[in-house]
Design a protein that fits this description.
With 123 residues, this protein is of the alpha/beta class. The protein has one domain: Rhodanese-like domain (Oxidized Rhodanese, domain 1). α3 links the parallel β2 and β3. α1 crosses α6.
């Protein structure tokens, strides 16, 4: 429980507003959506890669390896629905120094509210 509280409120790692995150994506950062597959399928930011928090919790290093990131990637932007799960993921990945993990504050809710693009299922 203490680890969860530290992850959420302990200030581990940085945060970006959605527009700042979009700018970092254009500069080469990778957006990682830590929601579960069903949530991701209902809509996500274009180009986001799915890596559910449940998988990160089970094996953080192995989970990162599944992203098959280019060697030039040095920053991951983590996003979820509201920003809480991505903060937890950020804390879980903090020990992996290959990439810097930054939380997208407010998650997909803030992303959409900021008017940024989102994919939706085709109906």
């Amino acid at each position: 429980m203490i680890a969860l509280l530290r992850a959420l409120f302990g200030g581990r790692g940085g945060q970006l507003a959605p527009h700042e995150a979009a700018a970092r994506l254009r500069a080469g950062a990778v957006l990682v959506d830590v929601r579960e597959a069903a949530e991701f399928a209902r809509g996500h930011a274009p180009g986001a890669r799915l890596l559910p928090l449940s998988r990160i919790r089970a094996d953080a290093a192995g989970a990162l390896a599944t992203l098959d990131l280019p060697d030039t990637t040095d920053e991951l932007l983590l996003i979820c629905h509201s920003g809480m799960r991505s903060r937890i993921a950020q804390a879980a990945l903090a020990g992996h120094r290959r990439v810097r993990c930054v939380n997208v504050a407010g998650g997909m809710q803030a992303w959409v509210d900021a008017g940024l693009p989102m994919t939706t299922p085709r109906g």
